[in-house]
Design goal:
Blueprint: H1 10-19, E1 21-23, H2 28-34, E2 41-47, E3 53-59, H3 66-74, H4 82-88, H5 96-106, H6 111-115, E4 118-124, H7 130-144
Antiparallel strand pairs: 1-4, 2-3, 2-4
Helix pairs in contact: 4-5
Protein backbone atom coordinates (compact mmCIF):
# COMPACT_ATOMS: atom_id res chain seq x y z
CA UNK A 1 0.00 0.00 0.00
CA UNK A 2 1.31 3.45 -0.89
CA UNK A 3 1.89 5.89 1.95
CA UNK A 4 -0.76 8.37 0.80
CA UNK A 5 -3.39 5.66 0.43
CA UNK A 6 -3.14 4.50 4.02
CA UNK A 7 -6.02 5.04 6.40
CA UNK A 8 -4.03 7.02 8.96
CA UNK A 9 -3.04 9.63 6.37
CA UNK A 10 -6.56 10.64 5.36
CA UNK A 11 -6.18 13.37 7.97
CA UNK A 12 -3.41 14.92 5.84
CA UNK A 13 -5.81 15.22 2.92
CA UNK A 14 -8.46 16.75 5.17
CA UNK A 15 -5.95 19.24 6.56
CA UNK A 16 -5.07 20.42 3.05
CA UNK A 17 -8.75 20.71 2.12
CA UNK A 18 -9.43 22.76 5.26
CA UNK A 19 -6.66 25.24 4.36
CA UNK A 20 -8.01 26.04 0.89
CA UNK A 21 -9.94 29.28 0.51
CA UNK A 22 -12.47 28.89 -2.33
CA UNK A 23 -13.46 31.81 -4.54
CA UNK A 24 -16.39 32.60 -6.74
CA UNK A 25 -14.75 33.88 -9.94
CA UNK A 26 -17.20 36.79 -10.10
CA UNK A 27 -16.57 37.99 -6.53
CA UNK A 28 -14.69 41.15 -5.59
CA UNK A 29 -12.43 39.09 -3.29
CA UNK A 30 -11.31 36.98 -6.26
CA UNK A 31 -10.66 40.02 -8.45
CA UNK A 32 -8.67 41.64 -5.66
CA UNK A 33 -6.63 38.46 -5.10
CA UNK A 34 -5.70 37.99 -8.76
CA UNK A 35 -4.59 41.61 -9.03
CA UNK A 36 -2.18 41.30 -6.07
CA UNK A 37 1.24 41.52 -7.70
CA UNK A 38 3.14 39.98 -4.76
CA UNK A 39 0.97 36.95 -3.96
CA UNK A 40 2.31 33.43 -4.07
CA UNK A 41 0.97 30.05 -3.14
CA UNK A 42 -0.94 27.02 -4.37
CA UNK A 43 -4.06 27.13 -6.49
CA UNK A 44 -6.69 24.45 -6.93
CA UNK A 45 -9.44 23.93 -9.46
CA UNK A 46 -12.48 21.87 -8.56
CA UNK A 47 -15.56 21.06 -10.56
CA UNK A 48 -18.62 22.90 -9.29
CA UNK A 49 -20.92 19.92 -9.87
CA UNK A 50 -18.91 17.16 -8.22
CA UNK A 51 -16.70 19.31 -5.94
CA UNK A 52 -13.78 17.11 -7.02
CA UNK A 53 -10.37 18.82 -7.09
CA UNK A 54 -9.08 18.26 -10.61
CA UNK A 55 -5.90 20.37 -10.74
CA UNK A 56 -3.23 21.74 -8.42
CA UNK A 57 -0.67 24.35 -9.41
CA UNK A 58 1.70 26.90 -7.96
CA UNK A 59 2.00 30.62 -8.60
CA UNK A 60 4.39 33.26 -7.37
CA UNK A 61 7.60 31.81 -8.71
CA UNK A 62 10.19 34.26 -9.98
CA UNK A 63 8.47 37.33 -11.48
CA UNK A 64 5.04 35.76 -11.89
CA UNK A 65 2.53 36.34 -9.09
CA UNK A 66 -0.17 33.87 -8.14
CA UNK A 67 -2.77 36.22 -9.62
CA UNK A 68 -0.91 36.52 -12.91
CA UNK A 69 -0.71 32.74 -13.15
CA UNK A 70 -4.45 32.36 -12.51
CA UNK A 71 -5.23 34.98 -15.16
CA UNK A 72 -3.54 32.72 -17.72
CA UNK A 73 -6.18 30.07 -17.06
CA UNK A 74 -9.07 32.51 -17.32
CA UNK A 75 -8.03 34.01 -20.65
CA UNK A 76 -9.16 32.07 -23.73
CA UNK A 77 -5.68 31.68 -25.19
CA UNK A 78 -2.34 31.51 -23.43
CA UNK A 79 0.76 29.46 -24.02
CA UNK A 80 1.25 28.75 -20.29
CA UNK A 81 -1.75 26.46 -19.88
CA UNK A 82 -1.79 24.29 -22.99
CA UNK A 83 -1.90 20.92 -21.29
CA UNK A 84 -4.65 21.83 -18.80
CA UNK A 85 -6.91 23.43 -21.40
CA UNK A 86 -6.56 20.50 -23.79
CA UNK A 87 -7.25 17.97 -21.02
CA UNK A 88 -10.37 19.88 -19.89
CA UNK A 89 -11.66 19.91 -23.48
CA UNK A 90 -10.89 16.18 -23.74
CA UNK A 91 -8.64 16.61 -26.74
CA UNK A 92 -6.70 13.37 -27.00
CA UNK A 93 -4.27 13.79 -29.91
CA UNK A 94 -0.75 12.62 -29.08
CA UNK A 95 1.11 15.86 -29.58
CA UNK A 96 0.50 19.08 -27.63
CA UNK A 97 1.08 21.15 -30.77
CA UNK A 98 -1.78 19.38 -32.55
CA UNK A 99 -3.93 19.60 -29.42
CA UNK A 100 -3.31 23.32 -29.16
CA UNK A 101 -4.28 23.92 -32.80
CA UNK A 102 -7.50 22.00 -32.23
CA UNK A 103 -8.19 23.91 -29.00
CA UNK A 104 -7.65 27.27 -30.70
CA UNK A 105 -9.89 26.27 -33.60
CA UNK A 106 -12.77 24.61 -31.73
CA UNK A 107 -12.76 25.66 -28.07
CA UNK A 108 -11.02 28.99 -27.63
CA UNK A 109 -14.17 31.06 -28.19
CA UNK A 110 -16.03 29.14 -25.47
CA UNK A 111 -13.16 28.80 -22.98
CA UNK A 112 -14.47 31.35 -20.44
CA UNK A 113 -17.78 29.52 -20.33
CA UNK A 114 -16.00 26.16 -19.93
CA UNK A 115 -13.71 27.53 -17.21
CA UNK A 116 -16.73 28.86 -15.30
CA UNK A 117 -17.53 25.19 -14.51
CA UNK A 118 -14.61 25.31 -12.03
CA UNK A 119 -14.17 26.93 -8.66
CA UNK A 120 -10.77 28.36 -7.82
CA UNK A 121 -9.16 27.72 -4.44
CA UNK A 122 -5.99 29.17 -3.01
CA UNK A 123 -3.59 28.55 -0.17
CA UNK A 124 -1.40 31.63 0.19
CA UNK A 125 2.23 30.90 1.03
CA UNK A 126 3.61 34.42 1.37
CA UNK A 127 6.89 33.61 3.11
CA UNK A 128 7.82 30.53 1.08
CA UNK A 129 10.85 30.29 -1.17
CA UNK A 130 10.87 28.67 -4.64
CA UNK A 131 11.91 25.21 -3.41
CA UNK A 132 9.32 25.22 -0.61
CA UNK A 133 6.51 26.19 -3.01
CA UNK A 134 7.46 23.40 -5.41
CA UNK A 135 7.56 20.90 -2.54
CA UNK A 136 4.11 21.97 -1.31
CA UNK A 137 2.72 21.64 -4.83
CA UNK A 138 4.19 18.14 -5.28
CA UNK A 139 2.92 17.10 -1.85
CA UNK A 140 -0.62 18.36 -2.55
CA UNK A 141 -0.66 16.55 -5.91
CA UNK A 142 0.51 13.32 -4.27
CA UNK A 143 -2.16 13.53 -1.58
CA UNK A 144 -5.11 14.80 -3.65
CA UNK A 145 -4.33 12.97 -6.92
CA UNK A 146 -6.11 15.46 -9.19
CA UNK A 147 -6.94 13.96 -12.58
CA UNK A 148 -5.58 16.81 -14.75
CA UNK A 149 -2.14 16.79 -13.11
CA UNK A 150 -1.40 13.34 -14.55
Amino acid sequence: MAYFDSEKNKSIKQEILNDIKWYNQESEDFKKMINDKKSKGLYFFREKKTREIVYVGVGGLFLQSLGKRLKQYIRPSDEGTKSFKCKVCQITDDKVKNNWKKFKKEYQKNWKEKFSEFEVGVILCTDYEYRDLRFEEAFAIAVLKPRYNF
